[in-house]
Model the fold of this input.
Amino acid sequence: MAQDNMKKVAEDIRPRRSWLRRIGSVIKWMFILGVMAALFAGGAVGGFIASIVKDEPVRSELTIQEEISQNDVTGFAYFRDGTPIGQLRTDEDRRLVAFKDIPQSIIDAVLAIEDNRFYEHHGVDVSGTLRAVKQKLLNESVQTGGSTLTQQLARRVFLSLDKTDDRKVKEILLSLRLERFLSKNEILTAYLNKVPFGNGSNGYNVYGIKAAAKGIFGVSDLNKLNIAQAAYLAGLPQLPSSYSAFNGYGEFNEAAFGRAIDRQHLVLRRMLEESKISASEYQQALAFDIKKSLAPHTKKAYVTYPYLMMETERQAAGILLKLNKGQEGETSSAQLENARQQLLTGGYRVYTTIDKKVYSAMHSISDDSSNFTKESKKKGLEQTAGIMIENKTGAILGMIEGRDYNIESMNYATQMVRQPGSTMKPIAAYLPALESGIIQPASILDDAPIILKDGSKGFHIPKNSNNRYQGLVTARYALNNSLNLPALKLFDEKVGIKDAWAFAKKLGISTIQDEDYSAQTGVLGGLKYGVTVEDLTNAYSAIGNKGEFNDAYMIEKIVDAQGKIVYQHKASPQRVFSVQTAYLMTDMLRTVISDGTGSTVKSNYKHFKDAPIVGKTGTTQNYADVWFMGYSPDVTLGMWVGYKEQINTLEGKTQRKQAQTLWAKVMNAVVDKNPELFTTKKFDQPEGIVKDTVSAYSGKQPTSLTDKFTTDIFNAKYVPKDSDDGITRAKYITYGGVNYIPREGTPEDFLSSKIVVAREKPIDQLIKELQAAFPSMKDHESLEYYLPEDAKSDVPTEVDPRQDDGAAPASPQNVALIYKNGKAVISFGKSPSADVVGYRLYRSLRGGAFQKVGVLTSGEGTSFTPGTPESESPVFYVTAVDVAGKETPSASVGGGYSTPEPSPSAEPMQTPSPGETGEQPGVFPGLPVDPQSTESPGTIIVTPSPAPPGTGGTDGTGTNAGAGTDAGTGTGSPATQEGTQTGTGN
Done:
């Protein structure tokens, strides 16, 4: 008990706590609990943040610097004079600006509306964020946004633009890190180079303040922007698509422009509030007519110059690919695509060789539908391609890439490969032959058939388009009239296919395939694939450049975004043939226009005095392609016309001459629009060119026997020194169009005696080859079709194959007399005897003695026209004569009297054989140099021969002419259309 009382007393005397101590205790525990809560919350937040950024890399200073400085920059293409063609293909226009080039007005406007405490915070503006939250919650009219410029930059460079809580956390952390490694000016510059500003007046999306100023106001120098324009631009990045005054086509958008003006007014008010502008500047800016200062609407370069921009892109990307690889070699499509993306986003400036005036003049012709035939529902649009090259440099001055990019985007001038037709003849036949001295313009070539092996048909016999073979002609005449056979013989036999193609490759023909080395008709265009317009024009340009080849090019230089020249074209001229060969070829191509197949160019070209021209036509089989390659001393222009699908052919004279017509129109337009290109007024004749007169039979020096001559120009090295040993005067008989040595006993009146030519392949040998080939051919013409027109001037090498059968020949059948225009015409049927060499005509006047008045050799026809009038009461009969001289009287008589015996004492009237007048049939018409010239290269001068004895009738009724079926008895007129037979030879 006592102990209990003592405890109670002790408790009663224990001191009581003061109320202050109690409050302190509460506070202590609250603090402890608060710390614990804070630590818990911090841990939770930290864990939450850690979960958000666990996959986000921690970027080093170097990485941040590299990615911030990395910008896709718009590239541009330029004409030859430095004026812009347009920006390279992309939906965006990006142009970089340095901080020093950004005016203070732009900085003030951007910071006033986007981040007015930019220079005070360290990446995150807490007060600004809270203010933005308050404005958002209270739906205030002025809402400044909570993200700093640093946050916006971090989001654009490193994160997606999706609005998520995760992204906001990452954005804040990245902003703090950016502020650690970048200066404020670096951040501001990067921001102004990367943010979007909507569409420019050409429809491109503009990124960065510099592109925005150019695209929206047409201002390249930012310092020329006034306060109103600076405020307008500063307001756009918040909602560029909603504020854009232009749509994707560059068309004005009134509603969006109104919203942008409202936004501009807000920017100006914020600038006034931030004391960045004065009240007067504020009022002036509000009064400024922004709409009037907008850039005018322009089309994108890929709309205005679609072909040219695509070609520039293609060629420039190829150059960058080679620079990246360091050398040429096999490339993948992925590598090429990477190079293209590098070009399009790397800010490159590509300077081309394209002359704006030339390009415009060329397209003024191709864009005019009246210059073409009407579009065909079956064939489509008649297409054309052209390219003009500067001879001295190889620079491509202009192109026609096609007629409508929306219909066909392929560049027909540089990418299409088609058969060249006869335009290949100068490149692979005449030029190498001239250079090696095989021919000169006056050299004699044989336009006679050759028989080529053809796996599918047995044999193939190429033709000329005029369906005749003209025999011995000059090289100039053969080229003027684009005869196929002389060119084939040069290509296959004289130059040789291997050397011909090697020569063509030196002139830039890059499409020759292995199979083409076995294509015997390749020189006519029978290639596996063909050639491009660019390659073929390039080859002809070397002739205009006097034998020096410059590979054609379109990219002059490429400059990177830092202004460094990463590529500069370097000329590498190669002499392929001599200046003398170039001049001879040029002179031959001149007469192609003045006297040959280039007559349409001659009729339509208007500037012969200002810009002399030469050229060559070309067509392919069935006129699937037509060409004209022509040049002046300064430029070369190549033109092609056809359809997209080669199966579709050109029809009618207009279409088949279309390449010539368009060539003349394009050249006229270029000379009119850019006459300063054409400074050289003539093709200068170099040293080593001489003129000489040679035999028109052989191209050699004349002898006393020579009676046909031709005068032309020569390379002095190759003037012929040998004499004309290929001709002789011979007595022969003609049978089946071939000259033979007569058999003993063959009557003299059936023999011819004149100058004959020993050709490289005698006609009788040609006939044997033809006859041997015919059985293996599915289709061929008659033997007579293949005989050249001058076959009867061939030196006889074999005896007449007809042999005497020992009996007199059977009489001609069905002799009949009629009168045409009062003059007698006697017709008859052939004698069935195989050894007949010809027929004689006898006549009696008014019952008098019969006299021989005419002869016809076999094959010269079955009618006589002695010209005897009906008033003379003539009577005629016809006899057949064999190789031994035996003769039979006619089985019937014309005129009504009985058949008499011929009077042996009568003097016969002989019929001159075709060609006995001294004229060479079918060849060598005059080839005038020009209208002012009195001399004509290639003209044949004929020395008259005395008439053979016995010519002329005894009755004064005129010379008897056999009206037979044999062609080629007169001088043939020049062909007006060139060869089209190509053949494949494969």
In short: The longest strand covers residues 836-845.
